[in-house]
Amino acid sequence: MAVRKSSEVRSVQAAVVRRKDGPLRIEKLRIEHPRNDEVLVRTVATGVCHTDISMLHYWDEADGPQVLGHEGAGIVEEVGSKVKRFRPGDHVILSFQSCGICASCRSGRPTKCRIFYDLNFGFRRADGTNGFAASGVRGHFFGQSSFATHMLTTERNMVKVDRTLPLSLLAPLGCGIQAGAGAVMNQLKIRKKESMVVFGSGAVGLSAVMAGHMIGAAPVIAVDIRPSRLKLALELGATHFVDGRRSDIAAAIREIAPGGIDYSLETTGCSTIMQMAVDVLKKGGTAAYFTGDGGPDLAPPGRKVVSVIAGDSVPQKFIPRMIRWYKAGKFPFDRLIKFYNFRQINRAIKDSLLGTTIKPVLLFTCKKTG
Fold first, then answer.
1. Tens-digit pLDDT profile for residues 181-231
2. How far apart are CA 93 and CA 166, in angstroms?
């Protein structure tokens, strides 16, 4: 296989951030061919995650134009000379990036990678370079920037999947769904008959509900303000629900679990709910937060607060597990998904913000290019 110099570029289509809160503009950009340790993947589908939407909201002109997206799925087109585990034609799911050489990575804890933030939110390679430099745009978001027809990535954040499975369906497993299910299975390690409450019935929250149901947690309580999502939570395994529009949510939870809750999972980012997630715990209970800031500064004595990053998962192990659960009919995450054409990306983001779509997935119809 011929190895191209990294200075050589190819044309791609990408949704570019050029203003706060969007809209995103689909533009023709130039991207480098993969370096020796990189892989070029043709994007087939990508989920839209609230992290992408948050990045839009906090974007500033000083950040420069960017390509977001971090729930990509696609087909390998080119591999660098040092890539051993993938070859052209492989179907892959992409997840978060990690360095692979720090103590945490070597011990099998990639979510604790020493340079996790830089690799996933730095919009650059580990050496500071940028594969979209020829176009004056920053890429490499989560080591992929999947809001584009092609992604530059590495072996570290790729998971090979069976070619008979639909990539369009599997795309969102790389972040939000992995975070929710992984928090239950990997980080909290909730056991049968332990109680849990999930604040927020979006993709992350409902994935946690499904995981809790699989392991036999009880009760599994879903809290949300949308009746349709509460109904779906019950269908996916919640034993009880609480309508968040009522005046005293905590009292309703205590009616269901008078002794308090073993585990609370907070996905809304609302400060009031974040505090409530601690308040409803029993002594010895744990509150898990998905907002990245760890929730309240102090937990009451005898209670624990943890921050969830990607469900403390090793994607190469946990994503195949989720696929096996899905094929066995135990993890119907497909019920969360609504498909959009890539050019409908702004509509997908709007629908996600309005709450009318739980997990938007963008489909790419581009043909293979040379």
1. 999 999 999 999 999 999 999 999 999 999 999 999 999 999 999 999 999
2. 11
Sign for the CA dihedral angle at 192, 194, 198, 204 comes to negative
pTM of the model: 0.93
Q: Name the pairing type of β-strands 72-79 and 38-47.
A: antiparallel
Give the pair of three-digit tokens for residue 167. Answer: 């990539």
**Average per-residue pLDDT for the chain:** 93
* Bridge partner residues of 27 (DSSP): 14
pLDDT at 292: 61
**CA angle, residues 144, 125, 55, in degrees to nearest 5:** 55
